[in-house]
């Protein structure tokens, strides 16, 4: 199962990336991912804390799969052990070449328990992604136009 969201940010990828990688300031603007700690290096582990649109808190320790400056940040999180409930989370920045960036925010879920949470993922998780996308757009664009 996959959730894909997208938003156009009126700023170049390097400006979007700067806000996206400024984990320390996430609590100031990000209504979905409240905290990321750790160094985002491939093969390393980070700590991610999210708050669902319903107010449920969840913290997990995914492994960084891709960290490509100004382009892509991807991690793999799992519940208990691999194959139960795994989520591959991706932030991708696409340069439109006109000073704007397409921000693709997606997650692919796999595992035995995914079907049990499918409806919740399609509604709540998608809503959280869309909220974060809007938050990111607002944060970046307010900094660019200052």
What does this structure look like?
The chain is of the alpha+beta class and 146 residues long. The protein has one domain (2-144): Alpha-D-Glucose-1,6-Bisphosphate, Chain A, domain 4 (2-Layer Sandwich), CATH 3.30.530.20. It has helices spanning 13-20, 26-29, 118-144; strands at residues 2-9, 33-37, 47-51, 57-60, 63-68, 72-78, 86-95, 101-110. The strands form two sheets. A five-stranded antiparallel beta sheet has the order 1-8-7-6-5, covered by helices on one side. A three-stranded antiparallel beta sheet has the order 2-3-4, with no helix packed on it. The longest helix has 27 residues, at 118-144.
Task: Give descriptors for this structure.
single chain, 146 residues, alpha+beta, Alpha-D-Glucose-1,6-Bisphosphate, Chain A, domain 4, five-stranded antiparallel β-sheet, three-stranded antiparallel β-sheet
Overview in brief:
Helices cover 27% and strands 38% of the residues. It is α+β, with helices and mostly antiparallel strands and 146 residues long. β6 and β7 (86-95) form a beta hairpin.
Major sheet: size, sense and barrel closure?
5 strands, antiparallel
- Overall number of domains: 1
Order of helices and strands: EHHEEEEEEEH
Q: Structural class, from secondary structure content? A: alpha+beta
The named CATH superfamily: START domain
Instruction: Give me the number of helical elements.
Output: 3
In spatial order, strands of the major sheet run: 1-8-7-6-5
Beta-strand residue percentage: 35-45%
Uncertain spans: none
CATH class: Alpha Beta
What separation lies between the terminal Cα atoms?
40 Å
Rg result: 15 Å
CATH topology: Alpha-D-Glucose-1,6-Bisphosphate, Chain A, domain 4
Percent helix range: 25-40%
| Overall number of strands | 8
């Amino acid at each position: 199962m996959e959730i894909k969201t997208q938003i156009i940010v009126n700023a170049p990828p390097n400006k979007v990336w700067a806000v996206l990688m400024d984990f320390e300031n996430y609590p100031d603007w990000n209504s979905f991912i409240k905290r990321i700690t750790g160094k985002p290096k491939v093969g390393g582990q980070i700590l991610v804390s999210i708050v669902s649109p319903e107010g449920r808190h969840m913290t997990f320790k995914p492994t960084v799969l891709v960290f490509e400056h100004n382009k892509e940040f991807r991690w793999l999180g799992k519940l208990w052990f691999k194959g139960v409930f795994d989520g591959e989370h991706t932030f991708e920045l696409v340069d439109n070449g006109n000073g704007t960036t397409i921000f693709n925010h997606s997650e692919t879920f796999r595992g035995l328990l995914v079907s049990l949470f499918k409806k919740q993922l399609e509604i709540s998780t998608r809503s959280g992604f869309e909220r974060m996308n809007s938050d990111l757009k607002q944060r970046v664009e307010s900094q660019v136009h200052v």
